[in-house]
Structure formats: C-alpha cells, structure tokens
Design goal:
N-acetyltransferase activity; 5 strands; Aminopeptidase; GNAT_dom; single chain; alpha+beta; 5 helices; 5-stranded mixed β-sheet; Acyl_CoA_acyltransferase
Length: 163
C-alpha cells in the first residue's frame, strides 16, 4: 500500500466493523481494559438522533481502514463556543511512517477551521514518546495550564458518603 492509495474521508455506517477494530487496537495500546464497544453501540452513538462523536478515517480502498481520528465536542465552555476534542488518533502499526497520521491530523485541522474552532485538544500518555514527537512535528504542544485529574470508584464512594 502506498500513501496515495489511502483516502482520508468522514466515517460512514459501513466503517463500523473496521472502526471498532481500530478503537480496540488503541485501547489495548493504551493499556486499557474492559473494552465494551460493539458495532451496534458505535452506530447508535455515531449516527443516532444526536451523534456523540465523528471520525475521519484512512480508507485503504480494500474494505480496510488504515487509521482513524475520532473527535467530539465539549459543548459548554466559558467562551460560549464548544471545544473540539480528538479522542483518538490511531494508525495501524504496519502502515505507520507513510504520512497517514499527518494526513488525519490535517483533516482534523480542516474540520476545526470549517466548524469555527480556533483549536482542538487531545490527551497523550505520559510515556508515549513516539506520539509526543509526532505531535511536536505538526507544531502541537502540551497544554501549559492543564493536567487531567480524576476520581476513582473508591474515592467517589467516599466523597459521596460525605455529601
């Protein structure tokens, strides 16, 4: 497969089996557990009455996807404009280094501009040096002001008992 053989486009319903495969691949890479998505769930969440996410896919032309950039919006922001988030950028390991990730990022950038977003954001694992180097290569930078925080199940139960 040559880079030019890959077409970047918006997801369609027929992509759900391949999108599911790519999502499971990135979740495993991120050391995630308890992967629960099904094709039916993706169809509902991506194409339901109120779609919760969108995706740009790298279509190989052989009913296989080479990669994806999954995105969603956080609607309520202090600027009165939603924030565009990239949930996942993932390219199959066997086709990395061919410019597909950069093309998916370019499509995300075009989507940001087309929808009036001045920026878009995403999370990167702290130990994923290759991803960090890739993002720096497209002129991205870590957010200097924000770190992600979380409450786990035990902390939620403890705090809820106080409330």
């Amino acid at each position: 497969m040559v880079e030019n053989d890959v077409r970047i486009r918006s997801m369609v319903r027929q992509d759900m089996p391949e999108l599911l495969r790519l999502m499971e691949g990135i979740v495993k890479f991120e050391r995630g557990t308890d992967f629960r998505f099904t094709e039916a769930e993706l169809l509902h969440r991506g194409f339901g009455e109120r779609p919760e996410f969108g995706a740009f896919v790298a279509d190989r032309g052989d009913s296989m996807l080479a990669g994806m950039a999954v995105h969603y919006e956080i609607p309520l922001m202090h600027t009165l404009r939603p924030l565009l988030m990239m949930k996942w950028l993932f390219v199959d390991p066997d086709v990395r280094g061919r410019g597909i990730g950069r093309r998916l990022m370019g499509r995300m950038a075009r989507h940001a501009m087309d929808t009036g977003h001045e920026r878009f954001c995403w999370f990167v694992l702290k130990d994923n040096a290759p991803a960090q180097a890739f993002y720096k290569g497209v002129d991205a930078a870590p957010d200097p002001d924000w770190d992600r925080w979380q409450l786990g199940a035990e902390a939620i139960a403890h705090l809820a008992a106080d409330g």
